[in-house]
């Protein structure tokens, strides 16, 4: 091989090393954290339903002080996926056939109206009422009506509303939290 060809080859290889370093410049990076839980249930809980945020809107104090003393209902849902309702045996464990689920809601009760979830925000005289899939009013700690399940995805729709507690109503923020537990049957 001639010296010219050797020199050209060396220059080409050296240039390609610099070019690849130029493209490898740090243009931003980060981390992705994956979390989840393996549960003993016939259905998986969809990622959008493990932490549910419900915007109750801006409720006029007059709504809570007169008339029905509660706001309009706001719907939300618990989405289930991959439901397999058949009886199965895996090793020494038998999974029974299940076709229904009920949902039990927990949380901190309001001091004046124990059937409502307490508001930890700055508004006074207001709590959150939970309503089951059939429209029945729930108290903190109650289970909603049984819901029939189908194989595959299921959506269980509930509602909530801001409701007067009986204490004087004052303006401010509404912040409340509930937990839920699924009870398969």
UniProtKB/TrEMBL annotation:
The record's annotation in Pfam families points to: Fimbrial
List, in alphabetical order, the GO biological process terms annotated in this UniProt record.
cell adhesion involved in single-species biofilm formation
Cellular component per GO?
pilus
Q: Which keywords belong to this entry?
A: Signal
Q: Which InterPro entries match?
A: Adhesion_dom_fimbrial, Adhesion_dom_fimbrial_sf, Adhesion_dom_sf, Bact_Fimbrial_Adh_Pro
The chain positions of domain Fimbrial-type adhesion read 32-185
Its signal peptide is 1-24
Tell me which domain of life the UniProt entry assigns to the organism this sequence originates from.
Bacteria
> PANTHER family attached here?
FIMBRIAL SUBUNIT ELFA-RELATED, FIMBRIAL-LIKE PROTEIN
Name assigned to this protein: Fimbrial protein
Query: From which organism does this entry originate?
Result: Yersinia aleksiciae
Per the UniProt record, the lineage of the source organism begins with: Bacteria, Pseudomonadati, Pseudomonadota, Gammaproteobacteria, Enterobacterales
